[in-house]
Predict the 3D structure of the following.
Amino acid sequence: MACRLRYSVLAAALGLLGSCSPYQRLYTDFMKGRSSIRYIHTSKKEFKKTDNRVNVSLPVITDSRFKSAGNVRHVKSTVIPLIVFNSWDYRYECEVGQPLIIENLPRFIQASVIAESRRSGTFGIDSVSNDSGLTLEIAVDSLSAKGPYSNIGFASYLLFVFLSHRDESAGPGVAYSRFHYRLSRAEATILESTVSSSTSLTTLSISPISKFHEGYRANLVECLGDTFRKNTEKIIARINLLLKK
């Protein structure tokens, strides 16, 4: 009777391990906080400045999809429940949205463009109008930062020995952004183009598990910031070429 009871308790425990999806904890941890998108400018400094000055208007985010809070989407689940062996394989896709980022994105991009221009630009730049009449407008028309998340494991009971293993991994993830920009003088367009960049995130294994989900969000946001840095550098380099002519 005791042996039968032991096996009944074991079967119930193994069934619980395999049938309880980790989705709710992942969703709660990934979505409950916010992460910083700040980055360090790494471009080569330009010390030769011309008399040209550019006014940077407050950028606009035109990608309405990114204004949502982000999401954790269930992709796949496989559970094999047996009396003395139980395995599971849960797969999800985690996606960052604007509310998961600490900074106000339009103001952050404006400040980043000004900082990068002062570092690598050949012209003066500010967020207020100036006598030169040059104005830079930026529309962020595509934003994305997402990647897979998996929870795989097993639990078994053999010859009165309980064995279990769980492996959680996040990535590889990808962040992408596209900026449409326009440089004008007295309402006349003198330069208009689009730049885009992507940054990949390698597979992560973060410990402890309680910080894993938040760490994944922070890394995706950091990768998105890296695409901003790349796009900003491209825009400044293109304006440098134009104003040197």
